[in-house]
Specification:
The protein is built from eight helices and four strands. The chain is globular. The chain is α/β, with parallel strands linked by helices. It has two domains: 73 residues; 91 residues, GMP Synthetase, Chain A, domain 3.
Length: 201
């Protein structure tokens, strides 16, 4: 049976999670990174893209990086666990992204020109919490037309889907409008360029 794009118990909303005492509580944004690992692992398992041992090793590598406060994506970790050299990572990660995307409905499209888009500095300045979450998920916001139309993209479509939900929640809470959020996929070279440019990694 196909896995849904989100688990039955996703991380709580980033902005205004409930608390037993009635007030908001602070959510660790790294919880979203953990949810992304779990969902991506499920998709990779469903697509038979790796053995259980390879997935376990890649998850452990990504979690270790997260514990050090350094973002890491499961697709890149898995490509390295599979023994691919640096110069071959691009096509391998793209293929892994294709397999993950095939488990999602609708399947996010690959956009090869995203690396040429200008970073939406004004959006990041207005929603610094989203900027921090985008950095953790390694899913840059590739465009933002005010708060009406926003796009995020990554090599890992699961990461972008999680961020897109939080973009909708944050913008709606701030301005009362649910934006049209596009989720797209990047090639490895554009992704590494944009994550360095947007997040100084």
């Amino acid at each position: 049976m196909p896995h849904p794009p989100f688990p039955a118990t996703p991380p709580p909303p980033f902005n205004n999670p409930p608390q037993a005492g009635g007030g908001p509580r602070v959510i660790d944004p790294w919880d979203f990174a953990e949810a992304c690992l779990d969902q991506t692992s499920d998709a990779l398992h469903e697509a038979r893209a790796a053995s259980p041992a390879q997935l376990s090793q890649a998850i452990a590598i990504a979690r270790e990086s997260h514990l050090r406060g350094k973002p890491a994506d499961l697709l890149e970790a898995l490509a390295r666990v599979k023994g691919h050299a640096e110069e071959h990572l691009g096509p391998v990660i793209l293929e892994l992204g294709n397999k993950v995307a095939a488990t999602l409905s609708p399947s996010p499209s690959h956009i090869p020109f995203a690396g040429k888009l200008i970073a939406p500095s004004a959006f990041y300045d207005s929603f610094d919490q989203l900027h921090a979450l985008a950095r953790i998920l390694l899913s840059p916001v590739v465009y933002a037309e005010d708060t009406d139309s926003i796009g995020t993209a990554s090599v890992n479509p699961v990461a972008s889907l999680i961020l897109s939900e939080e973009i909708c929640n944050s913008v709606f809470k701030r301005v009362g409008i649910r934006p049209f959020v596009t989720v797209a996929r990047l090639d490895y070279e554009s992704w590494t360029f944009l994550t360095r440019k947007h997040f100084e990694l």
